[in-house]
Amino acid sequence: MLWSTLLALPALAAAAPTESWLESVSKRQGSTTMLRFGCAQVVIDRLDPLVNPGLLPSPHTHQIVGGNGFNASMTTGDVSTTATCTTCAFSKDFSNYWTANLYFKARNGSYKRVKQLGAANQFSDNFSTQIGGGVLVYYVSAQPGKITAFKPGFRMLVGDPNKRTADGGNKMQNCYRCYTGPNFGGDTAAPCAGSIDTPGLPKDVCKGGIRSNILFPTCWDGVNLDSPDHKSHVAYPSTGAANFLSLGGSCPSTHPVRIPQLMYEVVWDTTPFNNKAEWPADGSQPFYFSYGDNTGFGQHADYVFGWQGNELQKGMDASGCMGAKCKDMSNQSIDNAKKCSVSVKVHEERDNWIDKLPGVEM
C-alpha cells in the first residue's frame, strides 16, 4: 500500500538521497494514482464565495487558482458549466482552489505580500516550476477499494481562521516545512512527515522559503454536496493518523464513501525577508496570514469541485498515474493556462508596502 511505503520514507531517503518520495512511490505503487499538478494564479482578491457568499469585499484576501467561473456568489451549481478556461494542467478541471495570502510584517509595522514560488520539479513538468505564484494540487487514489470522485456542486472547507493554538488531533492536516537552503532545500520527504514539518509557521529564518500543505478529509456522507459549516458532510478516517498517511484508514459509518485525498501545496518565497534586522525588535515570527494570524494554526483552504463530466473519476479509476498527466485525461500548455484570468473586483494594493492588512484592524 502507498501509505505503508510513505511511512518508511525516512529510510528510503537515507538510502537514496537524490530520489524524491514521489519517485519512490511511483516505482513501487502500480495500483496508486497521484494526480499532482500546478495551477497558475487566476486572481488575488478579497472574495470568499464559500464562507461569505455575495460579500464584496470579504474579510480578508485570498489567492485563487483554477477556472475563470470564480465569483463572489458561486454558492450552488456546477461551476464547470460557468467557466471557459482554467489555469490548471488538466484542461477539464474548472474547479476553484483558494487559500489566504501571506504577508511579512516589518519592524516599522508595515506589511508586504509574500509571493509564491513554484514547486520542486519532481516530475519534470512545467506546471510544477512555472506556475508563477500558483498552487500545487494533489488528488490521490489508493486501491484496493473504490474511490468516488466528487460530484457536480460539491464544496468543502478545511481549517479554522480563528485557531491560534495547536490541535494535537489534527496537527498534520495543516503543516509547514522550512526550506533550509536553495532549490527547496533538497526536499525529498513526504508531506507532513514527522519532525521535519511543524503544525505552525516556522519561528526562524527559512533560507529557501516556507512550504505549506493543507490536507482535506477523505470520507463523505454520500448525500450532501455541502453543509452549513462546509465541513460536516465530510470526515477524516476513524482509524489511522489524521494526516496524509491516513488515506487507507476506515471511514466512519456516518461518512462511508471514500473520496480522493485532496491536498494543496503552496511554497512561499520568504527569502526577500531573511534579514532579521527587518524583523520585529523582539525577534518574533514576522509572517502573518491575511486574516491576522502569525501562528499559522489558522491556515485554511476552500474547494469548489468543477471537473467536467467524469474526467476526475477516470483519473481515480486509473492506476499508476503520477504527476500532471494520466492516461487519456486532457491537458493544456502552461502558456495557455496563464492566459486564463478573472477580473479583480476589490481593488487594493497587492504588491507594495501597506500600513495594515486589507480588511483587518491590527
TrEMBL record:
Keywords attached to this entry: Signal
Pfam family, one: DUF1996
Domain DUF1996, chain residue ranges per copy: 48-307
Keyword Signal attributed: yes
Signal peptide segment: 1-15
Listed InterPro entries: DUF1996
Name of the protein in question: DUF1996 domain-containing protein
Organism field: Lophiostoma macrostomum CBS 122681
